[in-house]
Design brief:
single chain, mainly alpha, 3 helices, flat
């Protein structure tokens, strides 16, 4: 089972890579905006896999809108 520090490091790595990708390919440069977008992307996958989303609860269709 991963430790909290490992999970936090993996999360930060994912956020940084996503931010670099979005910043390079769109006009958006704000890290806050890209973090918000990443949560929306991850929630779609969480819903499709019946896993907890970014708010640590199971998602329903209304949460994705």
């Amino acid at each position: 089972m991963p430790q909290k520090g490992e999970i936090r490091a993996a999360k930060n790595t994912l956020y940084d890579k996503y931010h670099r990708f979005i910043s390079a390919n769109t006009p958006t440069k704000s890290k806050l905006d890209t973090t918000r977008m990443l949560h929306k992307v991850l929630n779609v996958f969480a819903y499709s896999e019946m896993m907890p989303g970014s708010n640590c609860k199971l998602q329903n269709w209304g949460d994705l809108m």
